[in-house]
Amino acid sequence: MSREFKLWKIVLILFFTLSSSTYHSNGKLIMEGSATFDSSGFTKLTNTSKHSYGHVFNSNPVLFKNSSFNFHFHFGIVPEHNHSGTHGMTCVLSPTRHLPGVSSDQYLGLFNKTTDGKTSNNIIAIELDIHKDEEFGDLDDNHVGININGLRSVISAPAGYYDDNDGKFHNLSLVSGKVMRLSIVYSQPDEQLNVTLSPAEFSETPLKPLLSLKRYLSPYIMEEMYLGFTASTGSVGAIHYMLNSVSGPEVDYPSFDISVVPTLPLYPKKVTDKTRIVLAACLILAMTVAFVTSLIGFFFYMRHKKVREVLEEWEVQYGPHRFAYKELFNATKGFKEKQILGSGGFGQVYKGTLPGSDAEIAVKRTSHGSSQGKSEFIAEISTIGRLRHPNLVRLLGYCRHKEDLFLVYDYMPNGSLDKYIYRSDKNENQERLSWDQRFKIIKDVASALLYLHQEWVQVIIHRDIKPANVLIDQEMNARLGDFGLAKLYDQGIDPQTSKVAGTFGYIAPEFLRTGRATTSTDVYAFGLVMLEVVCGRRLIERREAKNEEVLVDWILELWEEGKLFDAAEESICQETNRGEIELVLKLGVLCSYQAESVRPDMSAVMRILNGVLQLPDNLLDVVRAERLRGQPEISMGMLLDMNSMSTLPFTNSFISHGR
Ligand SMILES: *[C@@H]1O[C@H](CO)[C@@H](O)[C@H](O)[C@H]1NC(C)=O
Ligand SMILES: *[C@@H]1O[C@H](CO)[C@@H](O)[C@H](O)[C@H]1NC(C)=O
Ligand SMILES: *[C@@H]1O[C@H](CO)[C@@H](O)[C@H](O)[C@H]1NC(C)=O
Ligand SMILES: *[C@@H]1O[C@H](CO)[C@@H](O)[C@H](O)[C@H]1NC(C)=O
Ligand SMILES: *[C@@H]1O[C@H](CO)[C@@H](O)[C@H](O)[C@H]1NC(C)=O
Ligand SMILES: *[C@@H]1O[C@H](CO)[C@@H](O)[C@H](O)[C@H]1NC(C)=O
């Protein structure tokens, strides 16, 4: 079969199966998840449901083996909020027309945690990604990428196009709600895949592609490949449209180009918004009546004004996230005791289901008499309301009712990390985490801390890192929660002195001495958490062997005896993991070092965990001084010893705190 003939065939298949007229009648397309046809004839890959995904696949294979291909399609993404939505869509070539077991959110309905990155996938996808996922190295929240077998793009670029006339780059916003065109061209002789994005109004594809990948794709392409589209949503909604306009080379075939670019429907308003509109309409009516009867009108006006003034500035600033008390009351079945997930110093946490959306939430309620009152609440809101990271528990909103304050978070069905790592009668049947899961959790927490310490505009100190504050989501990703103690301080300004708070055992020695929280005090606690995760036990536990009671001392003892590996929980001990386990144990010890200046910062920790930076070989000598732990002050001689660390290759980056 000649290459040309194959190309014909591809185009014909695309023509007949994907043109809008044949779409409906012959049922040639396979839809899964939330994908449907819109009444206007577009294919909607996702609907307003959160954390969902949709697929549409051509039911016939398109034979791509050893051939060039060339097609384009139109698409548009309508976000829930102005220029903000999740998670993105892909155009995919897959050896199967089903993608079983895939996940929503960052997995784009394309992979799941286990299948992501597997070479056996044989999947080539072009992602139109509207969310920055740090774990896949995304460059921003508006990019196009070429993905082979995984979500980490082989090559990616911010969405936009190059002007044919002057070669200038113009940005395009994928979530603008506007229709855009994507052209995908693979030349087999040149072994080059070009991807070009352009506004739908353009009649010609821009000459300079947005992405150009020089790679021989045949090894990834099976004899039979299916063409499909996937999309997913996360906690912010977005409707992903694929316009039924896929086609092959325009030169030879009737073009599907849309002569009049259609306007996509607006994102459907929530029911609550409708109620608000009705209320607003009533108000306007009342005002009109009031205008006629000016006295009453004046009275109404004054009252309205008064109500407005009662709103505090911070409430106006973070207005969109405000929940009605009734909503939360209904969601938690009237704050029933049965709904309580846990309680802490700050108040109780209730499980809830938002009426109308089935979205599960966790509602933190601060009790009336709590010593930590409104100011903490406001601090927490202003901090986490604006933080976005896959490894942080998302704050969805808040509510104030009488003397009670409420914070609404994403519900984490798998609870907190302590349940997984500590053995107790209560969780005897709890499945033990594998090493891969543990290592991932450690990296997740590290990534969240790095974000808080160094990647956010302000330095944020968590101040209460411990397993109970690490939550596990549905996909077994770790997410850091409870920012109740977080105190902000601006870059460059001395950390504020504040009253000692935190959890016994995880408090760094210098914090006890000075009451100053720094990023380094977080690193200290994180070091201990790493050790607990590897060893599957608490920092201090009653043990038959007295020397095993204090975890850190025991680990140091084993290390000195050259038996460090024995510290790890038995169920995860395998020779293949040995390197990683020892690395994490050593790093944990280094992070929880008594002297603050020796602890690495989070970017160094991250690089060590990722194997980019090495721990020094003579770390044990340095850490041996740690055996003097428990003595009141570190001696001068030891300090000199530590200073000599500056000759070690890692020190400069290690000891730079802040940015
Ligand atoms: C979205 O699609 C899913 C799957 O078909 C369906 O269960 C859900 O009800 C839809 N949501 C809305 C809001 O239409
Ligand atoms: C594709 O090319 C490879 C090597 O160039 C060859 O072995 C294989 O037979 C070709 N397959 C088809 C279907 O042409
Ligand atoms: C929507 O967001 C864009 C950019 O973020 C801004 O330029 C525009 O004014 C916003 N529109 C509305 C109606 O808020
Ligand atoms: C991912 O999907 C595969 C099937 O393709 C399934 O066997 C596996 O359990 C799924 N993993 C997760 C974490 O959902
Ligand atoms: C495109 O967007 C990026 C990031 O939003 C911005 O830095 C850059 O200046 C923009 N370029 C143009 C030409 O508007
Ligand atoms: C891909 O783009 C490059 C320019 O980056 C161009 O030289 C090449 O001809 C293009 N290939 C195809 C098949 O369009």
From TrEMBL:
- Give the EC class as a word: transferase
Identify the domain of life. Answer: Eukaryota
Please give one Gene Ontology molecular function term for this protein.
ATP binding
Q: Where does it primarily localize?
A: membrane
**Which EC numbers does the record give?**
2.7.11.1
Q: Where is the signal peptide?
A: 1-27
Q: In which compartments does the protein localize? A: Membrane
Name it.
non-specific serine/threonine protein kinase
Q: Which organism is it from?
A: Brassica campestris (Field mustard)
